[in-house]
Amino acid sequence: MSTEIAHETAHDEHHDHGPAKGLMRWVTTTNHKDIGTLYLWLSFIMLLYGGSMAMIIRLELFQPGLQWVEPHFFNQMTTMHGLVMVFGAIMPAFVGLANWLIPMMIGAPDMALPRMNNWSFWILPFAFGMLACTTFMEGGAPAFGWTFYAPLSTTFAPASTDFFIFAVHLMGISSVMGSINIIATILNMRAPGMTLMKMPLFVWTWLITAYLLIAVMPVLAGAVTMMLTDRHFGTSFFDAAGGGDPVMFQHIFWFFGHPEVYIMILPAFGVISAIIPTFARKPLFGYSSMVYASASIAILSFMVWAHHMFTTGMPVAGELYFMYATILISVPTGVKVFNWVTTMWKGSMTFETPMLFALGFIVMFTIGGFSGLMLGVAPVDTQYHDTYFVVAHFHYVLVTGALYSIIAAFYYWVPKWTGHMYDERLGKIHFWWSTIAVNVLFFPQHFVGLAGMPRRIPDYALQFAEFNQISSIGGFAFGLAQVFFLYIVIKTIRGGEKATDRVWEGATGLEFEQLPSPPPYHSFNEPPPVK
Amino acid sequence: MKQQTSPLKLALIPVLMFGFGFALVPLYDVFCDITGLNGKTGRIEASEIDAGLVDDSRIITVRFLAQTNTGLPWSFEPLVEKMEVHPGQVYEAVYRVRSTSSQATKGQAVPSVSPGLAAEHFNKTECFCFVQQELGPLEVRDMPMRFVIGPNISDKIDQVTLSYTFFSLDRG
Ligand code: HEM
Ligand SMILES: [Cu+2]
Fold first, then answer.
1. Do B44 and B20 have their domain in common?
2. Distance CA A499, CA A39 (A)
3. What torsion, rounded to 10 degrees, do the Cα atoms A441, A95, A340, A351 define?
4. CA A450, A456, A458: angle at the middle one, nearest 5?
5. Is the domain of B29 the same as that of B102?
6. Number of folded domains in chain B?
7. What's the CA-to-centroid distance between A140 and ligand 1, angstroms?
8. Which ligand is closest in space to the CA of residue A376?
């Protein structure tokens, strides 16, 4: 094995040139590792940007009454926070991981369409730059919520909404190009012997996610296009006066929106399915059931969208259908959790930082799954809808779910990427600090939600004061923990204990078994042997 | 050599799905039409009504609601608030609209019936909502609406609410 790796390195020194020098390297690069790095950095910057807006929100909610910001500005903050986190932090982070990992995991030299890959990334800074600029425009940034329901986003929206619409178009184009690239890479560029059912689950879940993306991002693009023509070209898609229907906006949005939440969680399932076996030192339990569960989650995700619309006056038959369909999704989701737990059963486990974040994921994502189950029950959702209970639900699945998996992936693969071990002590501090803070932040929101505190408001009734204060303290602590994470990231990139090629005792997969740490700039110019 | 998947063929999927997003609009209307959801009322010709089908044994209370949407400087109300009607018989209700603007203004009324399942049985032979209404400065107008509730309406329904919202058609 080690001779093979040595040979590979020597071989690279002969034929390959490394990256170009200077800053232009990053602008013109078509290398999957460079582009992966760019995506991950963009995502981190967006995490800090979206996070600072969350700090403003929690600051205002620290006390009842209005202290720090105007209600209209508060609404801009909740809107931009949601948009930036969903489209800027979570989605690009997973695309970054896909770029770094998929070619190395399937034994391919690069992505299938490297030029397009460069485009997919470089569109994004412009999209988010434009979105960020809206804050300084007359009338302020969009303030209608990340779900931009009409007519708030059409008749009553600020002028900057057109920039928002264009930014969403750009993000959509980027996602669609990135996804086509990922599908083409996975289907066409696997090393000989790497059959579909031998692929690591991260590759599988990304293949499914990419299909979801090319199916629903265009629907979102259609929705914002209709908004645009309603605003400026006299159509009435969502305007009752002209024969349109604002409720139809919600149907179109959630037809995109529900698959979108699975776009943000399926790659996370792949990451967790890589980490748990490594630190349990046992192969993943139920590999093929994981693949089928992912596929069925993806298919079901198209059939449940109206669980976001239980209170729009649907007929009872509709409520019943969407309720049962929603609850059905928890079956394949449960299969996954069951498989992870069974993988650990009687394993010889150790608890390095990636494993801690993965375990945190399993426990807290499951809490979010349970509150989702409650929300899926139509008769009780009438009470929970648009309260902080919903906010608690989606932050458990997105922060302690999607974001935790991204952080876990960072700690798990960064020694491979950079050749440096991160500082284990700091990583553990990061985990415990984040985990305590995030629960102080979001757990109380379940209770204020059940007690009736509505979401998206800058002020609230006095009886919610204590829980909001607790929540805010957790929020500040969690925010600070991610600044600490930035320090860990930079420290690890700049140096650290030399990582072995295998990195982790129990690690498997081509990237650990066939490549040195760090891997050469161009890896797998010759397809590796696949067992 | 493996079977190659062509990126161009893949690109067809997003193009089709973009079209599908727009196709949802007519699909949505068709779906609401077939199922009678969404409270949309129907329109029939007076000649289609069979006078022999009046069901004297049933009485349904119809309530009338009227409101104007923001941006339309009109006041709008029904002259009677409710009526007791027999299924199959044609009735007339009158709404009064009054412009409070010193300019000419234009509006469109959009009806909605609740409960939703009554909507497909609620038909109108004549309605101010069939056309746009234009009012001169401070003009007052009484507008008739003739309706009939189909005799096949479920016998669980004994109350129907008809709501009209006037939307402004003056842009900007
Ligand atoms: C067991 C699985 C899940 C079920 C049954 C479920 C169910 C629901 C329901 C019924 C709502 C609507 C609540 C309301 O507005 O009244 C909701 C909201 C939401 N869910 Fe889930 N969910 C699940 C998993 C997830 C996952 C995995 C994610 C993302 C990774 C997610 C993200 C969201 C988001 C973002 C919202 C709020 C949307 C908004 O802003 O209104 N959910 N969920
Ligand atoms: Cu959903």
1. no
2. 23
3. -70
4. 105
5. no
6. 2
7. 28
8. 1
pTM for the whole structure: 0.89
Identity of the residue numbered A180:
I
Residue A7 has a pLDDT of 44
Which of B11, B35, B110 is facing A241, going by the closest CB pair? Answer: B110
Q: What is the mean pLDDT of residues A46-63?
A: 97
ipTM of the complex: 0.84
User: What is the residue-wise DSSP string for A467-514?
Assistant: HHHHHHHHHHHHHHHHHHHHHHHHHHHH--SBPPSS-STT--SHHHHS
Summarised one tens digit per residue, pLDDT across range B27-49 is: 888 887 776 666 666 677 766 76
B residues 123-162 closer than 8 Å to A (CB): none
- Is B18 in the same domain as B98? no
Residues with Cβ within 8 Å of A4's Cβ and at least 6 positions away in sequence, in order, are: A514
Q: Which domain holds residue B141?
A: 39-168
Torsion of CA A427, A430, A436, A442, to 10 degrees: -120
- Please compute, for residue B141, the number of CA atoms within 13 A of its CA located in the half-sphere on the CB side: 16
Q: Are residues B5 and B75 in the same domain?
A: no
Whole-angstrom distance, CA of residue A519 vs CA of residue A418: 8
Same domain membership, residue B52 and residue B107:
yes
Asked if A411 reaches chain B (Cβ–Cβ under 8 Å), the answer is no
Most A CBs within 10 A among B3, B6, B13, hence the mutation to make, goes to B13
Q: How far is CA A98 from the centre of its chain?
A: 12
Express as a percent the part of chain A with pLDDT over 90. 89
One domain for residues B53 and B72: yes
Which residues 13-52 of B have a C-beta within 8 angstroms of A? 13-15, 17-18, 20-22, 24-25, 28, 35, 37-38
- Is-contact B60 B85, C-beta < 8 A? yes
Average pLDDT score, chain B: 84
What the block records as the tokens of A382 is 């009438």
Clarify whether residues B13 and B93 are in a common domain: no
Mutation test of the interface with chain A: which of B1, B3, B8, B22, choosing the one with the most A Cβ atoms within 10 A?
B22
Residue A401, both tokens? 């779910």
Which range, of A418-422, A425-429, B123-127, averages the lowest pLDDT?
B123-127
